[in-house]
Amino acid sequence: MAKVDQLAHERKKAQFDVGALKVVWAGSQHALQISDRMAKLVASDPVFLKDDRPRLSRKELFRKTLHKAAHAWKLIVDLRLSEEEASRLRFFVDEPAYTDLHWGMFIPAIKGQANEEQQQEWLPLAYKMQIIGCYAQTEMGHGSNVQGLETTATFDPNTDEFVLNSPTLTSTKWWPGGLGKVSTHAIVYARLITDGQDYGVHGFIAQIRSLEDHQSLPGVTVADIGMKFGNGAYNTMDNGLLRFDHVRIPRKQMLMRLSKVTREGKYLHSDVPRQLVYGTMVYVRQTIVSDASNYLSRAVCIAVRYSAVRRQFGSQAGGPEIQVIDYKTQQNRLFPLLATVYAFRFVGEWMKWLYLDVTKRLEAKDFSTLAEAHACTAGLKSLTTSVTADGIEDCRKLCGGHGYLCSSGLPELFAVYVPACTYEGDNTVLLLQVARFLMKTVQQLRSKRPVGTAAYLGKLEYLLENNCTVSKAEDWLKPSVVLEAFEARSARLAANCALQVSQASSPEADL
Question: For position 1, what pLDDT does the model report?
Fold first, then answer.
């Protein structure tokens, strides 16, 4: 059967410069060129094929993931790709793997929390992948409540070592990606105890597997936690469990940029402000927000193309039926998702600026924007991941029965993405943190003028007393009018909630 381009007619009708829009999406001409090169490199390599992924057993699926990750690393080394090129290559390989945690969590944690001497020791090994790391924070009993973690790191002054221990079943590290099968090292978060005093949760670099035979080290129990939701999907990732039975590590493997324990066992804060740890959090959440646009764009692309090709009803005198995309009901559900993709893309770029701004301010010991940055990253992580997960499912429905097929790409896309609603902060918990920031801002209006994204609350009285000035439909095309409408709505909701909280017998009574 001759190949027919069913979309050619639709593409010819574009009333905008497609090439210019590609640059906008990529961020720059330079970024677009790198993306195009890496996309072609991956697409032309049969090792990276993924069409059989939903049909593979977990064992075979994971074996192929290891092969792809190793092949990608060989390409990066052989072609001497830059860090930017390597990042785009891994993006187009499009398979959750241990490398995501190694590059996305393990290395940033060392860069953000280790002192200069520790960075010089560990980063070269990590950059060359002579060690492979993961991020072991979440436990079976505690996820969002980091301060409730139970793993302990007790300093022994006789040997100049910390003793890592998992005292309870619920202290088992649970969920870290890359931990189950691959990682040789982990950033382990544990309660630091020295001289009988608990100083709270701190980070430590711990080796968990031998670099010679990859077996778990004495006292270390490590395993894969098993199958996850969906065919293929996130099952390419080796999420694991980790327990310590009085495992000793050198004192110098405590991450010591913010605080340290001396040879004598004395706990000391460094001159570096503890708030610097928020820089890593902003970086990780910025990445999650940017990823939301990537995942939703793929689902919307599939649904738009399907809607343009699929015809249903309305045949006149034996002619072709009406394209599904021409139905208003389809447009009303699909086009807002298309707009959302670009909105998330642009807010992701803004988050990159926010990360750089917060980092610069923290290094100058300027903490004035920290609370706002925390609220923004929490709210945007929650909003973008929830909308994206729901949007992918909506796109599946927009493709009718065909969307339910694994070959559509949508079921696996949903299964791969939906964990984002939980990891790095449960979305409901994060929204409550945003609400707390807004309540505090409203309560402090008389003594402190809000700035940044919360500046609109400074005109609370005006927003509460005045009505919308829109008089005709065209007024809604003005961004300033739309923005003020959102400000008014948010201000009213915040003020009403603050009033309810102030009158409540307990903080959660009326919420």
Answer: 54
